[in-house]
Amino acid sequence: MIVSNPEVFDFSYIPEKFRFREKQKSVIESLSIAPLLSGVANTVSIYGRSGTGKTATVRRIISGNTEFRSYYFNTISLTNVRNILLEIIHGGRTFVMANQPYTELFEKIGQMRDKNILLVLDEATNIMKFDREGIYNLIRNKELYGTNIGVIFITMDDPSLFLTEREKRSMGLFSSINFPRYLSSELFQIVHDRAVEGLFPGSFDDGIIESISEMSEPSGSARVAIELLQKSAFISTHRGGKTIEMEDLRTANSIISPYVTESRLSGFSYDDLMVLLALCRALHHSSSATTPEVLSSLTILMEHYYGTPINRLNFYRIVRKLENSGIVEGRIIGNGYGKGVTKVLAINDIPVHILEEKIESILDAM
Ligand SMILES: Nc1ncnc2c1ncn2[C@@H]1O[C@H](COP(=O)(O)OP(=O)(O)OP(=O)(O)O)[C@@H](O)[C@H]1O
Ligand SMILES: [Mg+2]
Description:
alpha/beta; five-stranded parallel beta sheet; Helicase, Ruva Protein, domain 3; 3 domains; binds adenosine-5'-triphosphate; Rossmann fold; 52% helix; binds magnesium ion
């Protein structure tokens, strides 16, 4: 037996020690929490790559506080502000009145017992891009409706990169706080703490923790590092080992990305996979591709695979779905002053060749 406390490896587990994020935590407290408590709630945004502690830091700030009412939403599933407001008002009981005016919704919130409200919108890139009107009303809630709702957006990219100038102007200024990738030395301490909390003493040594932090350094992700530790502990247990060996870690490392990929791909339809494969092909020689490039790569693919052609409307719908799933990253880039914008797509978390092989094998089996 190696694992003494499996809960420690759950992503919702809050570790005893949470290091390296004191600065970010106190900036959030002074830019978001302090104004909220003095009755002038505002908006801040938090951004950084996957596994850099964004969600965990905010959860630590809101847990156990009694001075304000907080709501946390992962907005991958709740993609518009109206639904979020309804959720706050009716506490999950759905009383959906289509297009209820914002005035009524905010008035109801204003009548609630708790006047100081903190709203955390996690994975917020899409809601910020696609519900501009809702976000506008939310950010301006104080001046428009007299409510005191502070908002924290959590995204992977700096919002100033994916919002257009016009969107930025309408939303007004808000502070962005960066969560940088963890350094190898930081990952070492995070994983070491986790190992001490969740594994039996003597089942691991510093050399293994050192290797884990080196392997996860390119992503800078505590999530990847902790997952490597957990997987190698279970692999060792499975072979009847008493300690985690380097070979266990290698096995864990080799299964992690295909494993993550497979579970993410399992919810996609034939057409979704075709579009994703077309994107992979378009990314062979560059780090991002424009939508026309993906469309033409799709046309070529269609000649090899059977299936009904995907029309443009469907194509754009599928692209949005892939973005929502987090596998594809969409970005709007400016073409230079006065020349409009172009949308580019990228895949950043998984090596494209691994993803491509996986999709091809799924398509062949379909
Ligand atoms: N500084 C830290 N100390 C200890 N554990 C950490 C630290 N930072 C992150 N973790 C752990 O790593 C995991 C991922 O962190 P978290 O969910 O906060 O990342 P995130 O930035 O929200 O990533 P994503 O964008 O993928 O949601 C969690 O299990 C969290 O407890
Ligand atoms: Mg998160």
